[in-house]
Amino acid sequence: MQGTYRDDRDAKVNEDVPVGPMIAPLHLSEIARGHFATIAGILEEQKRSSPHYAEHVGLLALRLEQIAMYQAVIEVEGCTFTTQSVLTTKDGSVSALKIMKRAHPAVAMLDAALRHAQSLLGDLMLNPSAALKIASGHKQEAGDFDDF
Asked: Using CB atoms within 10 A of its CB, is residue 110 exposed (0-12), middle (13-18) or buried (19+)?
């Protein structure tokens, strides 16, 4: 009988990822480049910046720009819009006017962008729960109920 040990499972995660400055992807707008620089600066301060993460950070910067755009549209146009449809009879006369309130399409796009940005922040370990995981020397103090 043979065990399931394999040498490739001993490799450390991100062991081969070079640390260094990130260059913003060319397709980013000026606003997105500003977000990119901010995020790249945070990662550099944490000594986790790598050129390998540039596209991922670029995607997050793009999503942050889109969030601001969608919020601006919603502030100007509102969360809903009104549609009207006319119901006619067979002879062509108007029988009823149907008015419906619908959610603005920017609301759904904002929701998707927010969810995606939150996911990307988690992937890059830039959210509060990830910060607690990578904080150096952060240990909870012993409590009275630790024995339970």
From this structure: buried
Is pLDDT larger for residue 140 or for residue 105? 105
Per residue in 117-133, pLDDT tens?
A: 999 999 898 888 776 77
Cα–Cα dist 96/92, whole Å: 12
Q: Kindly report the pTM of this predicted structure.
A: 0.71
Q: Amino acid letter at 100?
A: M
Structural contact between residues 49 and 21, judged by C-beta atoms closer than 8 angstroms: yes
Q: Is 54 exposed, middle or buried (0-12, 13-18, 19+ CB in 10 A)?
A: middle
Q: Is the pLDDT of residue 143 over 70?
A: no
Distances (CA, A) of 46 to 20, 23, 30, 50, 118: 12, 17, 25, 11, 19
The packing angle between helices 30-45 and 54-77, to 10°, is 130
Q: Cα–Cα distance between 103 and 99 in angstroms, integer?
A: 14
CA 77 to chain centre: 24
